[in-house]
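Predict the 3D structure for this chain.
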Amino acid sequence: MSWYDEAIFYHIYPLGLLNAPRHNDHEGVVHRLRELDPWIRHIEELNCNAVYIGPLFESVGHGYETTDYRRLDERLGDNADLADFVRKCHERGIKVILDGVFNHTGREFFAFQDIKQNREGSRYRDWYVNVNFYGNNEYNDGFSYDNWGGYNLLAKLNQRNPEVKDYICDVIRFWVKEFDIDGLRLDAADVLDFDFMKALRAVANEVKPEFWLMGEVIHGDYSRWVNEGTLHSVTNYVMHKALYSGHNDHNYFEIAHTQRRLEGFGASGKSGFKLYNFVDNHDVERIYTKLNNKAHFTPVHILLYTLPGIPSIYYGSEFAVEGRKERSSDDSLRPALRLSDYGDAIASNPATRLISALGRIRKENPELSYGDYRELLLTNRQYAFSRGYNGRSVAVAVNNDDNDYSMSLEVSGAQEYYGALGGERVPVRDGRIQVNIKANSGEIWVPLSDGRKAEALVAPEEIRIVPGKACDEKQGSGSEDGKRAEPEKAKESAASEPADRPLGKPSGTAPEKAGSYEEGIIAGLQEAVMALMEKNGQVTEQMRKDVRDNVYHDSLINWIKSFR
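Done. Predicted structure below.
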C-alpha cells in the first residue's frame, strides 16, 4: 500500500486561480503563490490529502510552453515560494505533485533559441524532432520542426536523444531536491516515447520512496501506460465522459459498461491499477455546467468517490461554480477565485458539504480504496455496486430519476448497515439490505461494526443538491479586472433521451441502441482531444474535421471497435 492508493486529490491551475497575467512580460517576480496558504487549510477541510498543481515553471503564456524548467514562473513567485508551499502542505499531511511538461518546450527555451541563432551549427539541433533547415513556419524561423497538436508554439522534444533524456531526468531530481515533491502528472503522456517513460520511472524509483507518476492519456488500452515499467496511473477520460453523459442521458448502462471495460484492462481491488478519476479539470467544462439536471451533482460525485480509482476535485467545483468554453477559450474554466468569498462554504453550501463528507467517507472506509468491484443492480436510472475488501463490503447506490427507488442489495461484513451520508440504519436479512434511494441522489452503505456510530454527515434533505442560491450566489473573481464574468447557463443536450427500460431488468442487459455506447464514448473522446488542442490556440475547421473523421491510424474509432 502506498500513499497514492488512498489519495484524494485537489487540482489547482495556479495561473488562473491566482489571477496571473495571461502573458509573461518578464516584469519581475510577483509572489502570488503565497496566496495559496489559506487554500491548504481548505483542502484539508475537504478531506483531500493530495494536491495536483501546475503548470508552475517559467513560460510565456498558459504555462505549457516551458521556458525554464528550474525556475518558478515569475508571475507566481520564486523557487522559495514553491518550496514553502510544499512544506506547508506536508505539515498537514498533504502530498504534492506537479505538472511535468516534457513532450515539448516553448520557443524561448535555451535549446530552441540556440537553434535559431546557430542553425545547422547548433549542438541542440537534435534535441527536437525533424528540424528541417529547408523548411519554414509562421514565425519565419527559416526552418521547420515537429510540434504538439499542430502548434509551433510547442516544439516537440526528441525524447530518444540521450542528452534530452538525461536533461529531463536531472530536472526531476532537481525538483525533488529543491521542492520535495511527491510525484508528477506527465502532460501529453499519450504521445511520449515509451522508452523515455521507462527512464522517468527509473528516476522515480530512485529519487524518493513512492514517487508517483501519472500520465495525461485520452484513450487507448490504459494498461499500455500503467504497469511496473512505465507509469503508476493515467487520467481516466473514458469514465469522465461516461459520468456526465450517463446522467444527462439517463443511461447508467454507459457508466457500468465503461467500468466493465476498465476492469478488463486491470482489475480493481488491492492489486489492480488505480486510474485518476475526475469530472472536470482545466481543459474541460465544469461539471455543474455540463449537467442538464443540476441535482445530478450528488450522484455524479458519489460515483466519483466510490468507483475504482483515485478521485480528484478541480478547484472551485466544490462550490458548484460554472465554466463553459467560449470562443475556443479556456479562461472561464480557469477563473481567479477568492477563498474569502467561500469562507463558510462547508456550513452554507450543500455542494461543498457533500464533497467534504465524501472525502471523509472514503478516508474511513478502505474498501473504497482497495476493494474489488461487483455490480449489484443496473437499469437506465438506477445503479448499484459493491466494493469488497477483507471480508467486508461497502454498497453504493445512485438514482438519476425524479422518483425514489427501492432496491435490495447484497452485502457482507456486519448484521447492520448505515448510510454514511444520511445516517439511516438498515438491518441485514439473508445477506441483503433493503434500501430506499431518494430521487436524483444516492447513498453509500457501510457496515455498522467495530464501534462505529451511525452519524449523518449531510442532512438527509440535503443529500440531493437542489440548485439555488446556496450553490450559485458566490462565483468568485476572475479575468484580469478581478471580476469573474457570469457564464451562460448550461444548454440542454441536443441528444434525445433514450426510452426507459423496465425497472428491475437483469444486470448486464445491453442498451437498446446497439451502437449507443460506442457512438457516445467516441464523441466524448473526440471532445476531449479538441479541448486539449484548444488550450494552445485557435483550432481550425480542418483540425476539427481531422478529429471527427479520425484520419490518424491510431484512431478513436478503431480503438473502440477493437472491443467487439
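The two ends are 35 Å apart (CA to CA).
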